[in-house]
From TrEMBL:
One GO CC term, this protein: chloroplast
Keyword Ligase applies: yes
Designated name of the protein: tryptophan--tRNA ligase
Gene Ontology molecular function, alphabetical: ATP binding; tryptophan-tRNA ligase activity
Catalytic activity: tRNA(Trp) + L-tryptophan + ATP = L-tryptophyl-tRNA(Trp) + AMP + diphosphate + H(+)
Family in the record: Belongs to the class-I aminoacyl-tRNA synthetase family.
Keywords associated with the record: Aminoacyl-tRNA synthetase, ATP-binding, Ligase, Nucleotide-binding, Protein biosynthesis
Enzyme Commission no: 6.1.1.2
Subcellular location: Mitochondrion
Length: 342
């Protein structure tokens, strides 16, 4: 079976963008593929953060995965830092990653500009190398991500090819063979809808955890009245009717897409249903759809969070399975790069 890996950072609250762009799609993918989903805690320390909150946010993110429908009989769920190979492979890959590749990353440029030089650690620059390690360790075929991760995925692919080119030949020649590779070159899986959920306060910016305004996003754990209030106050326009894909109406396109995804209706169906509506009619409809979709997730989340022994067991099992695969790749890389074997 083809293999898939993906993860979310335990920073801030998991929002509708993380859910529709990534987590929701995992639930379908786990029926077809071998799937590993991790909470990327090592990535969460690249910007100033609160150490006291990291472990709780990590547990909470794991509980969100399970509450959204990640099924441990089909998928491994684990914490990135529990599998040491992630950090170790990152060092090996860092040594062969041209720094020019990293300087070009849009996310680094944007986040470092916002945070200011004094707050930017080298980890923010080398973040994509850790992401490449997360993926390449598992010889993943596909990585389901939102559109914002496209550039990081391209770097991962280039890095895999570079290592295969630099060291793959030597390893295989030593073993008497030709060709072959150390890493599988993975493909991103960007969903046709939901890949870029936009902010509720600005239809041209993506919904994001780091937006200082909580009004800009729907968090998966927002209570009903908070959802209602955020939709009531979200940015709209004053044009008649509602429509998808009008570049002059980014908010309209975004809210209709969200409605489409949480109701499970087709785009055509939603376009027809909402064509003659005004915001006053559509907003309560969207609010109810969101609440109905998120409510069962929130109930399951509370149940999972109240059974800490269960969550611990899931994460231990997940890390054990993941480490088996990751260690095998890491040993191969050490050998191919010429390190003395223990
Ligand atoms: N707005 C979005 N629409 C669709 N997908 C999105 N993702 C993030 N935002 C959107 C996808 O969610 C997954 C996990 O993301 P992450 O935890 O690595 O991302 P993050 O950077 O912490 O989350 P944010 O909200 O994007 O935070 P900021 O902007 O503050 O850094 C990924 O698959 C991502 O594509």
């Amino acid at each position: 079976r083809k293999r898939i890996v993906s993860g979310v950072q335990p920073t801030g609250s998991v929002h509708l963008g993380n859910y529709l762009g990534a987590i929701k799609n995992w639930i379908t993918l786990q029926n077809t593929y071998e799937t590993l989903f991790f909470i990327v805690d090592l990535h969460a320390i690249t910007l100033p953060y609160e150490p006291k909150q990291l472990s709780e946010a990590t547990r909470s993110t794991a509980a969100i995965y399970l509450a959204c429908g990640v099924d441990t009989s089909k998928s491994s769920v684990f914490v990135q830092s529990h599998v040491r190979a992630h950090a170790e492979l990152m060092w090996l890959l860092s040594a062969v990653t041209p720094i020019g590749w990293l300087n070009k990353m849009i996310q680094f440029k944007e986040k470092s500009r916002k945070a200011g030089d004094e707050n930017v650690g080298a980890g923010l620059l080398t973040y994509p190398v850790l992401m490449a390690s997360d993926i390449l360790l598992y010889q993943s075929d596909f990585v389901p991500v939102g559109a914002d991760q496209k550039q990081h995925m391209e770097l991962t692919r280039e890095l895999a090819e570079r290592v295969n080119y630099l060291y793959g030949g030597r390893k295989w020649k030593k073993m008497g063979g030709r060709g072959g590779s150390i890493f599988k070159v993975p493909e991103p899986l960007i969903p046709p809808a939901g890949a870029r959920v936009m902010s509720l306060t600005d239809g041209l910016s993506k919904m994001s955890k780091s937006d200082p305004s909580d009004q800009s996003r729907i968090n998966l754990l927002d209570p009903k009245d908070v959802i209602k209030n955020k939709i009531k106050r979200c940015k709209t326009d004053s044009l008649p009717g509602l429509e998808f894909d009008n570049p002059d109406r980014p908010e309209c396109n975004n809210l209709l897409s969200v409605y489409q995804l949480v109701t499970g209706k087709s785009k055509e169906e939603v376009a027809r249903e909402c064509h003659d509506m005004n915001w006053g009619t559509f907003k309560p409809l969207l609010t109810d759809a969101l609440i109905n979709h998120l409510h069962p997730i929130q109930v399951r989340y509370e149940e999972i969070m109240s059974d800490s022994a269960y969550l611990d067991r899931v994460l231990l099992d997940g890390a054990t399975k993941a480490a088996d695969i990751a260690d095998a790749t890491l040993n191969n890389v050490y050998q191919a790069m010429g390190f003395l074997r223990r």
